[in-house]
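Whiteboard transcription, Tuesday session. T.W. wrote the structure tokens on the left side:
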């Protein structure tokens, strides 16, 4: 087993906390999306412009390396989150991990 870095463990803890604080008891994990990006999307309008949809409870975390960002993404995909669009123009610089929850559908 490969030893995970302190940055990896810290990001996992921060993202778990974000999901816990912004989910209800019966919120399915597949309503959460996780992806990687080569740039910060600080404003909600940037998320909506890049992703083309309404997003809720967005957050982003700097992973310091593409390797760590992809490891964090893979961890949460294994936990049942849905893969979001990769927003990377250059795959060597995908150092941001972002996540958001899709809103409930209304009929």
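and on the right, the sequence the group agreed on:
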């Amino acid at each position: 087993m490969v030893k995970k870095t302190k940055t990896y463990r810290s990001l996992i803890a921060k993202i778990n906390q974000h999901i816990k604080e912004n989910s209800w008891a019966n919120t399915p994990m597949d309503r959460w999306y996780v992806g990687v990006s080569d740039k910060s999307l600080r404003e909600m309008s940037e998320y909506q412009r890049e992703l083309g949809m309404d997003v809720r409870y967005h957050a982003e975390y700097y992973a310091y390396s593409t390797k760590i960002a992809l490891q964090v993404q893979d961890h949460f995909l294994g936990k049942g989150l849905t893969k979001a669009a990769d927003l990377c123009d250059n795959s060597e610089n995908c150092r941001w991990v972002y996540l958001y929850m899709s809103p409930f559908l209304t009929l």
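Someone added at the bottom: Helices lie at 6-21, 44-51, 66-78.
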